[in-house]
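debug: dumping io for the single-chain case to check the tokenizer round-trip. Nothing else runs in this session.
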Amino acid sequence: MSVTSSSSSLSTVAALWRLKPFVRPIVWRLVGGALSALAAAVIALMIPIVLEQIVRGLGDVAGAHLNGGVLGLILAGAAGVFALALGEAAMVWLRRWFVLTPATEVEFQMRSELYARLQNLPVAFHDRWQSGQLLSRMMQDISLIRRWIAFGLILLVVNILTIGIGAVLLFRWHWMLGVIFILTGIPMWIQGFLFEKRYGVLARRSQDQAGDLATSVEESVHGIRVLKAFGRGKHALSRFSRQAETLRETELRKARAVGEIWFWLDLMPQIAFGVSLITGIWLISTGGIDVAQLFAFFAMATVLRWPIESIGFLFSFMLDARTATDRVFDIYRETNSITDPEKPVHLAEPRGELAFEGARFRYQDAGAAERDLLDGIDLVLRPGETMALVGLTGSGKTTLTTLPARLYDVTGGRVTLDGVDIRDFELSELRRHIAMAFEDATLFSASVRENVLLGRADLDIHSAEGERVLREALDVAQAGFVDTLPDGVETIIGEEGLSLSGGQRQRLALARAVAAAPKVLVLDDPLSALDVDTEALVEEALRHVLAETTALIVAHRPSTVALADRVALLEKGRITAVGTHSDLLRTSAHYRHVISSLEAEQAARTGTIPIITEAMNEAAQNEASATEKEVQA
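debug: decoded output
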């Protein structure tokens, strides 16, 4: 997703002023750096004045025919200029000492706060944003802001002041020379104003395109197995090349814009030098100034040349920083709808009763004419009960499992734990009471121990108690394979656990949910990647774990349904039947249809695929119809 900044109406200064909270702790260091840089600039401006005195002194000595005095004056002048140069170098070093370390602190604070915000923002936010866009803001944009604070901001301010002070000093020798300097600067300021409008748009477009490119790289790396399996590497490369070419074209347009401003920044000083030289010679001929003054004027103009030429670079740097700030604040402006209540409720000893009361939910991008995906869910899980949730694909099973832990909030009705609306709990407490295991098992680049005990912030994971909890969870999940890894439970799992098989990843994810020791356990088909024998062992172990834990299990196979005390049938966003497996088989035709679908999938998975003829299918339908009539009678 490419995000267009909604803060484009802000002026550049106002946009950058939003960095104030991060810069405030180091503002005095920045002031010290700016004063040091200004002192260096003032010392540089003093050199032409010293040179004027040397040239005038040489003229006087030469006129008096004092040859020995000439050498002494040259040596004295050289020593004075050398001392000023040392002073300027010392001030430049002091500027860097003042600002470099504090600027990295700003970078650290911005990254930390942005990461914390990404962790706190709801899943709905991450559904809308590409990971590459977030990564480019986290790394590239904040790094650019740090460089601008440490380097660009101070030099821009100091160089503008230097140009102002130098322009005033140019009037010291003759007002006409100073006017020439001012007049030749006007076209540069006009071009600078036009440059800001054009370059700001290009800078934003470039940084957004860089984020899209980062997303493509990340997706292709994560999906490398799919691309190789389908032989689509060239297709991915072609798509990447198109995006990279688009970014290159934008960068070229930026370079052309910078080149145009540099043209004026280079041309106008040259014109100023030429006009000033002609005017200076004329003034000498008329006695308006002497040679020493003209020499000092050109020395001063030479000192001012770098500050003038640097304005283009620093100005574009400032606009890049402004765009980076806009992009970072795109995230800061996002509101978190899933937050802690002002007066949270605390449950010291939760019983584990989970209830859905008229719960409704629709995704944020759903059309106005579309019905709610969950259209008034009424369901109660008694404390310690295991409830299987079954339904056809698209009925909303997985979405329903995201509501108890507030990964999403209901858009109508409510979900309760022991009669308390889950929105009245602090999120940290709610997620201690309710744990989840997803069908798509996600692991982190950390050790097996750290992955499994991720949900136990209350434990020292290396303590004896931590070891006990770890081993119990691994035993339940039948994850003894970890002991065969190179470093056992201390083995570092590769990114997203891709060095493990699907079944191994799923078992570790299940162990993580079990180790959290929740009162309510929500499992979204956690055994789908397991072989038949391992699945049977896990199910047997789970029966002991679930004996005192309320569990909601999305079932995609009959064997999972067998774990449940009761079964809930989800149909078109509503719970249409609740009961035991045998009761629902007897009373619900739709349930029989769902179970037959699950059995067919199970048979296909185990290799015993039944052959369903049209006659068999018609007979099954007649039997279901007859049973339905009996129930109605």
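debug: round-trip ok. Confidence is low (pLDDT under 50) at residues 1-7, 609-621, 626-633.
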